[in-house]
Amino acid sequence: MRIRPATRAELPTLQDIERAAGAPFRALGMAAIADDEPPTLALLEEFRHAGRAWVATGEGEGEGESESESDGTPVAYLLSTPVDTATHIEQVTVHPRAARHRIGQALIEHTAERAREQGREALTLTTFADVPWNAPYYARIGFHVLAEAELTPGLRKIRAHEAELGLDRWPRVAMRRELTPGGTTPRTAP
Q1: Domain count of the chain?
Q2: 189 lies in a domain?
Q3: What's the pTM?
Q4: What is the pLDDT along the chain (190 residues), one digit of tens a residue?
Q5: What is the rounded distance in angstroms from the CA atom of residue 177 to the CA atom of residue 186?
Q6: CATH number of the domain within which 58 lies
Q7: Structural domain of residue 161, as residue ranges?
Q8: Would the keyword Mitochondrion be found if you checked this record's keyword annotation (predicted)?
């Protein structure tokens, strides 16, 4: 696997990844999420231009992968933005055909390293509380749920925007993972 900045030409591929990754939400009774449109090309370009859009490819993996996974085509992506003293993971999405290979975790670790270099205290994200590949997954890789009183002003603004979009029809949480000094991140068992 290789992690690198997204290119402008790959932005439609990121939309395709998002659409494919939305499909499993239908089985959870979350058809509105499954049918939600991916980020627009203009929004993806904003993240890319700011240096906050990363892709993971299957380059160098070898046997057993499809041509698109080995030719440098993205199979996952992550968008981040500074929020208060943290780097906020706006979106991390893995194509279902590349799931369960720790690609999302690799993108998060890459983002953690960059956040440390930028002097950020933590990673944050907002997610669905009860979706197995959302909050329970993030808890396994070192994130913890924030109580309402722990939300920073920036996270409160994000949560309010999510409520305006109707995402609070399903329980949502804000989560945080501290970035420890010296470059180490608390690890949990796989």
Answers
A1: 1
A2: no
A3: 0.87
A4: 899 999 999 999 999 999 999 999 999 999 999 999 999 999 999 999 999 999 999 754 444 444 444 568 999 999 999 999 999 999 999 999 998 899 999 999 999 999 999 999 999 999 999 999 999 999 999 999 999 999 999 999 999 999 999 998 999 999 999 997 644 444 444 4
A5: 8
A6: 3.40.630.30
A7: 2-183
A8: no
